[in-house]
Amino acid sequence: MTESARQKWEYATIPLLIHNTKAILDSWGVDGWELVTVLPGPGGSDQLVAYLKRPA
């Protein structure tokens, strides 16, 4: 596969509010973002960070 034929990606990290997770992810999904994973944030277990990607 040539370099120009490879899919290029754009990435984003966003904090997730536990009480509003679905609405936050839905709003990013409307803009073409795909959820990759959710991990604990640097603030501890009560804070989550979502990692997203979309074609560049």
Question: Describe it for me?
Answer:
This protein has one helix spanning 21-30, and strands at residues 9-16, 34-41, 44-55. It is α+β, with helices and mostly antiparallel strands and 56 residues long. It has one domain (7-55): Alpha-Beta Plaits. Strands 1-3-2 form a three-stranded antiparallel β-sheet, with helices on one face. The radius of gyration is 14 Å and the shape is elongated.
From the 3D structure, determine the CATH topology: Alpha-Beta Plaits
User: How much helicity do the residues have?
Assistant: 10-25%
How would you name the oligomeric state of the polypeptide chains in this document?
single chain
Regarding CATH, which class?
Answer: Alpha Beta
**Which structural class best describes the helix and strand composition?**
alpha+beta
The CATH architecture comes to 2-Layer Sandwich
The tally of structural domains comes to 1
Mean pLDDT across the residues is 92
Topology as a string of helices (H) and strands (E): EHEE
Unreliably modeled segments: none
Query: How are the strands ordered across the major sheet?
Result: 1-3-2
The biggest beta sheet, please? 3 strands, antiparallel
Question: What percentage of the residues does DSSP assign to strands (E)?
Answer: over 45%
| Annotation field: number of helices | 1
Cα-based radius of gyration, to the nearest Å: 14 Å
The shape is: elongated
- First and last CA, distance: 18 Å
Quantity of strands, as a count:
3
